[in-house]
Hints:
Helix content is 6%, strand content 34%. It contains three helices and 21 strands. Strands 2, 4, 5, 6, 8 and 11 form a six-stranded mixed β-sheet that branches. The chain has a five-stranded antiparallel β-sheet with strand order 13-12-14-19-16. Strands 18-17-15-20-21 form a five-stranded antiparallel β-sheet, with no helix packed on it. A hairpin with a 4-residue loop joins strand 20 (325-334) and strand 21. The relative contact order is 0.18.
Amino acid sequence: MTRSRSSKSTLAALLGMGLGGVVFSSCAPADFPSQAIVQTVRILASRADKPYAKPGDSVTVDLLAYDGRVVQPEPMQVSWLPFLCENPANDAYYACFAKFGAGVDGGAPGAGGAGGATAGLPAGTDLTPYLHLGASFDFTMPADAVSSHPVQAGITTPYGLVILFNFACAGHLEYVPLAAGDMNPQAVPIGCFDKAHHQLSADDFVIGFTRVYAYDTLTNTNPVITQVSLPSGLVAPEFGVTSVFEPTRCDKDNIDLCPENKIGPVIAPPDPNESVNVSFYTTVGQFKYDVRLLWDVSTGSVGGPSDTDTSYFAPINLGSAPGPSGLIWMIVRDNRGGANWVTVPVHIL
């Protein structure tokens, strides 16, 4: 979906008033549900087809988002801010907010920039017309991405960086102006609202960001998932989905007495000097380990499936009820911005 430059500039200036709360925690405090259990609106991962792009390259970024709510009054919508944050100060995502205030593509105040561009945008404005909708976003790496990045001490290979912001909202996004004098750098001028304009909670709204690096010479590819290890053996994923996983369920109160259903990805050898790990997520059941190391930067492969699989425990106390269907995601990431994932349909026996 293409938006006009004026729409992009207006939204960029709007965001110059502050945007925060985009950091996700991967650890669950005691007595809180594990982040591996997907029961709300979630953005689980993003993936650029060129994790290291050259200036001028066309790049596609994909999101893995899912609506895990049992009750869904409105469907989840995935969207993107339709402009790039190029080379923010200190490579910090939050430094993008001030850059947005200067306008898109260097627009000056009075020319689609911060100089009054938001004056006609009242509180409660539906931002949908300003956004790029969908789970994928295409952009061109700016020609000056590397040359315009400040030189940093100790960095021998010049690089550039762009950051893209994305949203998952079980409703629609609206402009929420900050209170006069609010200097909180984490204040968010965007909210997720239902049809009655009631602001929705964090269970219904996620803000994310994706970093894509630019190099003149270096390249990087995403990890390749060649097989998925299931109790029945190794299977090859097709179009990012594997055969149905049929774990034995648990009807014990003590999880230590439950069957351990082994599951995990098998990857192709990554680029040199990379470490690779996998994060597990599910809509039903739980894991012994939510994260596993697959490849060590110095020693290479950690081992085969017997060394890297996690144990999956099917839901407890199901009694004789039919097994529920669900999903498992395995998200594989390297330490240079590459990512890939596979979806595993689950049926509890």
